[in-house]
Amino acid sequence: MNDEMQTIDIPEEGLQHYGVGVLEGAPGRGSGRYPLGSGEAAYQRMVNLRTTVATLRKSGMSDKQIAEHLQFRNTCELRSRIAKNRGEIHAYEVARALKLKDKQMSNVAIARLMFKDDSKESTVRNLLKEAERNRQGKFAEVTSLLKAELEKHPYLDVGEGTNLSYDISEDRLKKILTQMEQDGGYKVHSDIVVEQYGVAGLKKTTNKILTKADISDRDVYQHLDEVRPAGFYLDKDTDSIRQIEPPASIDGKRVYIRYAEQGGTDKDGLIEIRPGVEDLSLGKAHYAQVRIAVDGKSYLKGMALYSDKIPEGYDVVFNTNKHEGTPMEKVLKPLNTTKDGEIDIANPFKASIKTEDQLKLANESEGSIRRQRHYIGADGQEHLSAINIVNEEGAWNEWSRNISAQMLSKQPPALAKRQLDLAYQVKKEQFDELSSLTNPTVKKQLLQSFADECDHDAVHLKAFGFPGQTTKVLLPVDSLKDNECYCPTYDTGTPVVAIRFPHAHISEIASMTVNNNHREAKKILGQAIDAIGINSNVARKLSGADYDGDTVVVIPNKDGAIKFVKTLEGLKNFDPSEAYPKYPGMRVMKESTKQREMGIVSNLITDMTVAGANEQELTRAIKHSMVVIDAVKHELDYKRSERENNIDGLKAKYQQHPYDDDYGGASTLLSKSKSTTYIPDRRLKGIDPATGRKIWEDTGKLTRKGTLKMIESDQMSDTDDARTLISKYNSQQERVYANFANQMKQMALDARKEAVTTPPLKKNPEAAKQYASEVASLTVKLRTALRNKPLERMAQRLANVEVRQHIYDNPELKTREKRGELKKLKGRTLQYMRERTGANKTKVTFTDAEWKAVQSGAVSNSFLERLLKNADDKHVKQLSMPRERQTLSPARRSRVENMLARGYTYAEVAKTLDIPMGTVQGVAMEMR
What we know:
Distance between the termini: 66 Å
Structural class: alpha/beta
Shape: globular
């Protein structure tokens, strides 16, 4: 028990309360392996039970009467409880004596504290001897278990959380591992580092691996997929990693292909499904982005919705712009395969399929959901659905509502400055609130995270979104007019603009008026919460969008602040497929090349726009970008497009490094900010308390070829002053963005400076007693989070190995242009490995009472640091900030008035400024 109480390595928190306490004189039904009440208060209750029974016996009551009085079932239960009570008291005293001894207290002092009697020193001595025997027994037991596991698995993860599997403290496990090394035959590899997927920035996960002595670090790196968490059994029967079932396929005879000649071009990418077909059900949704395997070798990719116009004998209609006569295998996409030619179960569709926790589409009664939905068929058996969800109805509502520099830099500088200033003001207010927090540990943690956010904002240059801005997925309604759309989340008659990314020029912005009275659109989409219905002409204007999941940012534009123009003359009726078709023997562009070429031409267009290129030049560049974006899908001759549009001439005129493959020709601050630069490998040494700057030191690591190891960085991250990235054009747009980036950089420095100079939390003993049960609850929550750590590390290791193999097979994934694709690969691979290992990324959450305990100083600084490390920053921030603000500061009130005047809704203002809706409404009333 003692080791268990020390598990979290805090002096008193873990001692206060485990299990269910016993009310004075009343029976209890404890739970778990711990005694009924194992803290100081619980100990008193144990003693009180014995005292109560003794008192009642002295009063003349029989044991039967006492049992009835104390509500025990009979005298047997009374005697059993008294005997168990003696054992609990003794176990508590053993653990308590050892805990106090570990705090360097003398035996006499311990006797005085525990028994209020100095003469009990010999009792304390005996308790300590028993505790040491228990320790040594546990020591030998765990050592034996680890050695036995190594015989089965030669690589064991013994990092954070492993101790919980053996019911011992972290310190005890460290001593066991040290002793194993000293005795010979075993080795602990303490610095095995792998990239941490699923987090912002380039972060690493450090693994501690136990092996036999003859295993080197290099051996461990080469066998990362064989490392197992010590003390965990992944599958009770096989002790193996769980597998995920392959996707269910439908027969190709059920699929009707609607070719270009039949109108397929106008709905390219749309999947229409017959209602009522069980294995193709979308649940309660009207639409979803899906993948459907066909004949076990191909798959359909696109947006799916129900249709009552399915030809007889078919269940699915797939719309394509390919011409009649194209065989089905050329219309559909091939399932992803491994090097051995087998279906890649980890990534059959080259897309992340929703997990059970993420997928909310189907009713729980319809069956369990993992990667896909299950359903009960007509035969009464459970079957795997052929529908694989990528995004379901409602998912697009959660997308970011910031606005990118790629779009805003093409608008008037004054508009860009207005939205960037608002983004800075919101950030500055968050900083002021974090700086005012009274709990130093919480303040420190949140300020450090906030500083990282500011650095990220400086690189990505995203501005605050516009009033009413949302992200919508595109769906076709061809009977709509060119100047109207169906979008139920806006009022009929609202003028809106729709912008698709990548966004080359303001001529690709569609301006429409919302028409929610359109009968066909209403029938198809219903009350769509995150979709927009448009016709094919609008889709073509939106950079040639199709319906396989393409999205747009929709912004109300009543005041005409967002500028747009008609389609450029040279782009009217321009069809990349007709202009640059494939010729016999032509090598079709690879997906990796497409990503690279899109990065280059996007940078070129951005730089040309900032530099003031004329319409004819922009038309050439935009034409080429349209060819590149469809070069893989439609097998286009992008090389001829590059020559005929003289792209090299545009690069030479508008870019400083037109032929630099690493930079893609980035010339202006807008394109250079995220461009890659290479610096010597380094590690963070600390934070300068005077300036808040990160202190780095070079590692001096060498590559296998003996050259200095270099790592990637962003140009904006690698400069202290964003103005150094401004081009020779020195445009107003660049200056506006440089000022914003420097503001973010300075705020990051200020936040780190304040974080590093914030003193540690001082524990309040009185609060610890008052909130004993809350502290015990937090202890259990932290233990739960830590128990998942070994499984999470295993998922990360397996994902690293899998991604490493992908990079080996596809070296182009390491290029700058493939950065986005590689990031997606890492994310979905980690998701898959978490499913296989059972890692669930459990986070610590706080109840109101538990948060009061934290704020009152009921826990130590180190304990709170560990809680926060395993909690969600957003959750902690919500708890830390004032929930109700009865009065607004003048600056804050001005912010509310400013946002309301610009057209932001009450909800948008309340969410942005984290204030009650009623407060916003009150300000609005006073403004009238």
